[in-house]
Amino acid sequence: MSDGSIDQSLTSWVESTGGETDFPIQNLPLGIFSESKGRRRPGVAIGDYILDLPAVIDLLDEGWREDLTQPVLNAWLSRGQGAQRELRLRLAELLSDARYRDDVEAQLIGRSEVRMHVPCLIGDYTDFYVGIHHATNVGKQFRPDNPLLPNYKYVPIGYHGRASSVRASGEDVIRPSGQRKAPDADLPEYGPSRRLDYELELGIWVGSGNELGQPIPIGEASEHIAGYSLLNDWSARDLQAWEYQPLGPFLSKSFLTSVSPWIVTPDALRPFRNRLPSRPAGDPQPLPYLDDPADRETGGLCIQLEVTLVTDAMRAAGMQPHVLSRGSADTAMYWSAAQIVAHHSSNGCNLQPGDLIGTGTLSTDNDEGLGSLLEISRGGKQPIQLPTGEERSFLEDGDEIVLRAWCESEGAVRIGFGECVGRVVSAA
Amino acid sequence: MSDGSIDQSLTSWVESTGGETDFPIQNLPLGIFSESKGRRRPGVAIGDYILDLPAVIDLLDEGWREDLTQPVLNAWLSRGQGAQRELRLRLAELLSDARYRDDVEAQLIGRSEVRMHVPCLIGDYTDFYVGIHHATNVGKQFRPDNPLLPNYKYVPIGYHGRASSVRASGEDVIRPSGQRKAPDADLPEYGPSRRLDYELELGIWVGSGNELGQPIPIGEASEHIAGYSLLNDWSARDLQAWEYQPLGPFLSKSFLTSVSPWIVTPDALRPFRNRLPSRPAGDPQPLPYLDDPADRETGGLCIQLEVTLVTDAMRAAGMQPHVLSRGSADTAMYWSAAQIVAHHSSNGCNLQPGDLIGTGTLSTDNDEGLGSLLEISRGGKQPIQLPTGEERSFLEDGDEIVLRAWCESEGAVRIGFGECVGRVVSAA
């Protein structure tokens, strides 16, 4: 187990870990939680429960006490993957070996009884654009014959995002106001967005960082990744269209970004990693600073993704959520997580523990797994039909979007990411 | 003195405050300093000295002790302009009234003996683009007949920047590497930037913040501004040209941003504020959420700006710095600081105490005050001639750029911002 893998046959004595849970003993993601009046502190998800880490620190390592009793995980993650791996293996032992059951079981709390928070104090949030089918779909709406710009297959395109408005799953989406100008209008006006959208992404949490001026070599980049969450890059398309030239998206994004609260580790994902998809014939090979043999073999993230929608009317009628998309991350991503990290630091920019990096919207190359309403409704030209008879081109007040992700593979126990949920409420 | 103004006739008992200092008793900017082995703590600049604030806390207000002994100013600035004003007036009293001289003088430290730091833990750094002559000059290089995009005169254009790589004046500029593609090259390559540039900007420090989802009305925006610094938005033009479509500048900027360490307050700038420049005939009036009568009267910042260059050869020959530009901020800015703050929060984005906002490059409408080499050398086509016989289109290793700013007005004591200095060193 020295590489952080937990045996696929291992079972936990915790109830609720046998079935279709997102959080079997092979997952063990960390997060930050609080009870109704308690302080924020680290916990690990197991079945329907969360294990209160400060409460079992005596069973872990006294040297970890300070970092594992903080209200954010930055200090812990700064220790790098070695410490994370030690903790992971020790937790697997505590949660499987019956000898520890009495002591540990007393520190389990039902997950439905706690509130989850953003797991880190995010120094910087960066959003990438590595979903090539998304980039193609969006590009086609502007340039039908030439959807991808000339730099796309050389540069992992990214831009700085807003850290202050990143919130944990469950935060309401207050419809943003801003300047918008209809194509046929003479003048822009300020008011609530009429083209509010979601974007399905993965979030990458930075573990150990790098010093300013010291790029992270591609061969070491994966060691700087603490783990992954779901990320919803809520977007106001009308604000975006009017504001984004020449410096990129700004207020169309910075009103809210939601993340699922659990950091799923690279070790938990190990059974679900695969070769990077081969590049289509004629595509350039990555420049040397982005090319690594090990990453080529295991850089693909075989993570299943799903987005559902519930409207107020559906909720009132007790209907099931409407599935907007189903797809997989690995074939959606033109650049791997390691390539993203190496590129981000390639100019000497210092990444810091707890930084958050979005992949960009992850869409499939067919219509089943489009990661935004902008794509699904073809820029609003083809509204989707809901079972209530309602139509949607973009989000209406009361609409709730749920992102889910999980991994399945022959011979491996299924693991999941939990949910990233947000419900739209009317403008302030 | 209830508005925070300090009488223009007031003099300090501190030596070195009588002449051409940037820091007479009418200025009193806060910063964070440390001595060789001491901790970081707040100080106020006066003449050639810094007053150690924790050391005189007994003469200030016991209720301020916690916030004024921190290694960053975030908590102090979060109190808003009322508290800043009280501190400012009390400091003016201590530094002018001979009764306090003995107690206070013992806590003065020569500024040449301390190291200055970034004054806040910057949660988010945002860069705007309100320098209309800069935007015009840069736009002309791409679109000679139509340099400004259609949104420019409606939207204060801005984009998210990188907070982790903001450093205080004096930090070396490690030449960044990155992807660059010459216009006549078939393929991009990765290597040290060949078109390294500076950008002359003002930095705006956020004082009190706003809650997520609660825009700051334009009439209240100036109350959220704690003060101003100089800001150098170092830029790698070759990286920028290749990477910036479609999501804006990224690695071409995030390798370093330098700020001068003193936060010059709105109260100190009061004698140097004037009417916003009238918009040229035909330009639209600001939308209502950006329009405020008080801001129209006093939103203009009559701040003089200067940039100088010293090369290795000039330094070896003992030559004076070469003046690259001289201009004024007020006529350079198409949008005021209050308009910047109101726009930034207009979608509900939460600004936080200690956030940093750049104005964008401030150039005059003539050739005397161009704020970047990109403009001065016409994109590299017209190198400047230096007294050594050297030429410069962009920065070479060893080049040192110094930004300076000061305010002068009839009947007012001159105040200054100090310097924002950076010297280029070769790629790592």
TrEMBL record, chains A, B:
Region called Disordered, residue ranges: 170-190
Recorded coiled-coil stretches: none
Limits of the Fumarylacetoacetase N-terminal domain: 26-119
Primary enzyme class: hydrolase
Cofactors required: Ca(2+); Mg(2+)
Entry keywords, A to Z: Calcium, Hydrolase, Magnesium, Metal-binding, Phenylalanine catabolism, Tyrosine catabolism
Domain Fumarylacetoacetase-like C-terminal: 133-425
Nucleotidyltransferase recorded as keyword: no
Enzyme Commission designation: 3.7.1.2
Pathway: Amino-acid degradation; L-phenylalanine degradation; acetoacetate and fumarate from L-phenylalanine: step 6/6
Annotated GO MF terms: fumarylacetoacetase activity
NCBIfam families xrefs: fum_ac_acetase
Protein name: fumarylacetoacetase
